[in-house]
Amino acid sequence: MSVHSEIKKITTETLRKMKFDKEKITMLTAYDFTTAKMVDAGGVDSILIGDSAANVMAGHETTLPITLDQMIYHTQCVVRGVERALVVADLPFGTYQSNPEKALDSAVRMMKEGGAHAIKIEGGKEIEDSIRKIVNAGIPVCGHLGLTPQSIYQFGTYKVRAKEEAEAEKLISDCKLLEELGCFAVVLEKIPAALAKKASESISIPTIGIGAGPDCDGQVLVYHDMVGMNQGFSPKFLRRYLDLYSEITGAVSQYVKDVKSSDFPNDKESY
């Protein structure tokens, strides 16, 4: 029996219930139709169209260059491949920080044009008005605290965040604020495991960790990292489940060899 026939479509309410029932939430990224179809068929609870598309799909060093139009395109592609998972899309840098009206316009476009089920934005107290405006319009919002890659030039590093007491206290305070504002979940990125545990216990909405230890209510990884398509990226938190880089380059090399030697196509592969 397939995953799809066993389990109904995942919603934000499903994730809340999973936290309540102490069932771990699974999330992976996807940026295109074919990948989304495979990730969904594998039974993941939520698919994130991350602005990490700027890195893994477009080759940028940071997530900053990707535009709202590009994120909408990736979201449209993913939505067509999904039957079961909750589809969450990042609002990219510059589309929500400056004012709440712009934030709402960006979120509305992502829902209407992209077909997302929810949006994700980075930050706490500093973007409170934008979150409130989006949630009040009936759009589900997932928060994102800890290492927020859109602020990389402010941080100057991708190292673990909230090691100092003041930043740790602000993170807990921001978690509670995001819950109060009506966010349905919050991603915690690259923070100490003990702090993530404390944060998860301090709110009733799910926490989804990446490099935040085992006590979050769920986990998220970038698909390309998890299946080993990226060679140079090996953070401590990453578990590689495949080595697709070697598999694919090996297959390409064999194809090149077979064509050069006139082995491909053979009689059976010809009309």
Explain how this protein is built.
By secondary structure, this protein is an alpha/beta fold. The protein has 2 domains: 3-240, Phosphoenolpyruvate-binding domains (TIM Barrel), CATH 3.20.20.60; 246-271, no CATH class. It is 42% helix and 13% strand. The protein contains 12 helices and 8 strands. It has an 8-stranded parallel beta barrel with strand order 1-2-3-4-5-6-7-8, surrounded by 7 helices. Helix 6 links the parallel strand 3 and strand 4. Helix 9 (165-181) packs parallel to helix 10. The longest helix has 17 residues, at 165-181. The two termini are 38 Å apart.
Topology:
Elements: H1 3-6, H2 12-20, E1 25-29, H3 33-41, E2 46-49, H4 53-56, H5 68-80, E3 86-90, H6 100-112, E4 118-120, H7 128-136, E5 141-146, H8 152-155, H9 165-181, E6 185-189, H10 193-202, E7 207-210, E8 218-221, H11 223-226, H12 244-260
Helix pairs in contact: 3-5, 6-7, 9-10
